[in-house]
Amino acid sequence: MNNIVDNKNQNQRERSGRRHHLKMATRSVGNSWKQLSFNLIKRTFSTCSPGSNPSTTVSKSKRKKKKNLFEVAHFLPNWGIGFHMAKTHWSGVAYQITKINLYKDGKHGKAWGIVHKDGVPAADAPKKISGVHKRCWKYIPNSKKTEQITSLPQPEPEVQAT
Known about the structure:
Layout: H1 2-45, H2 55-59, H3 69-73, E1 84-87, E2 93-102, E3 109-117, E4 120-121, E5 127-128, E6 137-140, H4 142-151
Antiparallel strand pairs: 1-2, 1-6, 2-3, 3-4, 3-5
């Protein structure tokens, strides 16, 4: 008798399980049809089709990441020592790099330099540069070359006796 009751309960569980699976299957089919029809309506009434104007998605390029002082100095000989660098929003002010204390990752550290205003040294002693990790540094290309040319001794014109 006990065996019959167990079989009956098991049969009921199996039937309810089948019904549950059937309900879930019809729900998922119903939802997928609703979703497909919604997507179709959405595509037909949209103002622009995705295939007609692909340049809008491509033209949204990311902004170029600006560089901190160490990332700029990385490409210069001897890590930029002796070269002039300035922040992009500075006008007429630059630092001549004299010393760099670089951390292991190569993108962080400390730097010292001599301040130059309008190409003329404003101080004799180097001072620690603040804001070296901010992403707004640029290399001033002609300053190193002009200093080397002006620092070379100029030959004095020979005076001829007549």
